[in-house]
Design a protein that fits this description.
Strand order of the largest sheet of chain A: 7-6-5-8-9
Shape of chain B: globular
Largest sheet of chain A: 5 strands, antiparallel
Helix content of chain B: 25-40%
CATH class of chain B: Alpha Beta
Number of strands of chain B: 12
CATH architecture of chain B: 3-Layer(aba) Sandwich
Radius of gyration of chain A: 16 Å
Number of helices of chain B: 12
Order of helices and strands of chain A: EHEEEEEEEE
Distance between the termini of chain B: 20 Å
Radius of gyration of chain B: 20 Å
Largest sheet of chain B: 9 strands, mixed
Number of domains of chain B: 1
Shape of chain A: globular
Number of strands of chain A: 9
Strand order of the largest sheet of chain B: 3-2-4-8-1-9-12-11-10
Oligomer: heterodimer
Helix content of chain A: under 10%
Number of domains of chain A: 1
Strand content of chain B: 15-25%
Number of helices of chain A: 1
CATH superfamily of chain B: Thiolase/Chalcone synthase
Largest interface: A-B, 35 and 41 residues
């Protein structure tokens, strides 16, 4: 990717550290119920699908589709250039979504339904799960 | 429900008034108390949204309930302030419940903002680009802010885009909420933006975050709105009609999340809207005026659907051309200009306007003909509350 933009960092704690450092090995992870396989996001210690309490992080494919998007023009963080924000729904489960940014494609090429795959951007040990067009 | 809005009050509303939130609140409170035919000593309940909220955006919170309590030396049987709940209306709903439960006879409920003065004081936006170390974000905002999705404008723009994708809603239809608000604001002396705008003006306004232009985003102001929620029997003691609280919708059956909510096109409004009609024998066809939250234009469209004025996904065609929601249309919407043009009084401006319309006191912008039932909606994303008000004659 080109020049890395300004980013607020997540404040790491015992609940979210696995998520924000997951990209160190190139894999995106979410918590998953070890009893029924339901994916949990944001992280929580209870499976709303089966009531299970045994949850652990597991890698996902990192593939999904653009559920929606916006091209931001207002300089909230001082950046004068527009940037995109995408909402990606992961293939693993309906409604399992991440707010993120798309890299490797022009903003005006973004469409709802577009196939994407995770592409990490590292900053100070944080691996931001961004997305890029899915490789054919 | 067993409660009425017996009085309403509102301070000056404007840009950069340079007055404290407490000062504005006292203006609104005293006006509402007098309007209800009461004195300060009669007030035995106090409620506000969001309460003192030091970590919030500049000018967002207004004074907390202890500040108003002490300034007016109220002797309270019941009091509350807080941000969690069915949107700004949570303060009103709690007051209604308190009155119905017999915890208080007359509850002063207020919402105060000084966002315009706060921004003018140099704390623009969310202040992320300043010097020093990089800020760090925890809690639910860690899922949006680090991804440069800084504002509800960004989050809701994605909801709006999804609505356009699923239902074919057009930017021209979206614009009708802003154009209608501005037209109505022209008849409201307290509105902050009253100059007429055209569709061309709308599309020429600065893009904030696609598909939202500047005119899709509400206008920060300074101002305070107050109401008095009373026992129904008090209605016979006031010299004007009152608004009886027919029903409220407080449901949130989906996930309390901006980006994980199951249906992006409805958000929580779906649940708060549906619950309203589960608690009354009235129907959407009975509503004479609708005051629908428009912190962003798209939210008013969502509320039109959630409250059953049109079918799911049909708000675009419903407002196409703007005639149906105009002051002389079949369902007048945001008759004071909404937050887009009258100013961001953050939910309570809609309550104030609904009561004025029911009382027939809205002046040049009074809806023509019968006005006996008003719908009020507050909130967007995962926060939503709705209320149905019915006119009852006073003394």
């Amino acid at each position: 990717m080109t020049d890395a933009p300004f980013r607020v960092l997540p404040a790491l704690d015992d609940d979210n550290r696995f998520f924000w450092t997951s990209g160190a090995d190139g894999r995106l992870r979410f918590l998953r119920c070890q009893a029924c396989g339901y994916w949990l996001h944001p992280p929580a210690p209870y499976c709303p699908s089966c009531g299970g309490r045994d949850v652990a992080s597991e890698p996902v494919s990192g593939r999904g589709q653009v559920w929606s998007f916006t091209i931001n023009h207002h300089p909230w963080d001082g950046s004068p250039e527009p940037w995109n924000i995408v909402l990606v729904e992961l293939d693993e489960q309906p409604g399992l979504r991440l707010t993120s940014n798309l890299v490797g494609a022009a903003d005006d090429a973004i469409e709802i339904g577009m196939r994407v795959q995770v592409a990490f951007e590292e900053r100070d040990g944080i691996f931001f799960p961004l997305f890029e067009p899915e490789a054919p | 429900m067993d409660a009425i809005i017996s009085g309403i009050g509102q301070s000056d509303v404007g840009r950069r008034l340079g007055r404290s939130g407490l000062d504005l609140t006292i203006d609104a409170a005293l006006e509402a108390i007098a309007d209800a035919g009461l004195t300060v000593a009669d007030i035995d309940g106090l409620a506000t949204y969001p309460g003192a909220f030091p970590g919030g955006p500049p000018g967002f919170s207004g004074p907390g309930s202890p500040d108003v309590h002490d300034a007016l030396r109220l002797e309270l049987s019941w009091h509350r302030g807080g941000i969690e709940g069915p949107a700004q209306l949570s303060a009103v709903v709690d007051a209604v419940v308190a009155v119905q439960a017999g915890l208080a006879n007359h509850v002063l409920v207020y919402r105060t903002v000084t966002e315009s003065s706060a921004q003018a004081a140099g704390r623009e936006g969310i202040g992320l680009s300043g010097g020093g170390g990089a800020p760090k974000m925890g809690g639910s905002l860690q899922w949006s802010i680090p991804m440069r999705a800084y504002s509800a404008a960004n989050w809701l723009a994605m909801n709006c885009h999804r609505h356009m994708h699923e239902f074919g809603t057009t930017p021209e239809q979206l614009a009708q909420i802003a154009l209608n608000g501005r037209t109505n604001a022209g008849r409201n002396p307290k509105a902050v933006y009253r100059e007429p705008i055209t569709l061309d003006d709308y599309f020429a306004s600065r893009m904030i975050t696609t598909p939202f232009h500047l005119f899709d985003c509400d206008a920060p102001v300074d101002g305070s709105t107050a109401i008095v929620v009373s026992r129904p029997s008090h209605g016979a003691s006031v010299d004007h009609p009152v608004a009886r609280v027919e029903a409220v919708g407080t449901a949130l059956r989906g996930r309390p999340s901006w980006d994980q909510f199951d249906d992006m096109t409805t958000m929580a409004a779906r649940d708060a809207g549906a619950m309203l009609w589960e608690r009354t024998s009235l129907t959407p066809a009975d509503v004479d005026v609708a005051e629908l939250y428009d912190g962003f234009s798209f939210l008013a469209m969502v509320w039109l659907e959630a409250l059953g004025f049109c079918g799911p996904g049909e708000s675009g065609p419903f407002i196409d051309g703007g005639g149906r929601i105009a002051l002389d249309g079949e369902l007048p919407v945001n008759t004071h200009g909404g937050q887009l043009s009258a100013g961001r009084l953050h939910g309570f401006g809609f309550i104030h306007e609904a009561v004025l319309q029911l009382r027939g006191e809205a002046g040049d912008r009074q809806v023509p003909g019968r006005c006996e039932v008003a719908a009020v909606a507050n909130g967007g994303g995962p926060v939503a509350g709705s209320m149905l008000l019915v006119r009852e004659d006073g003394r």
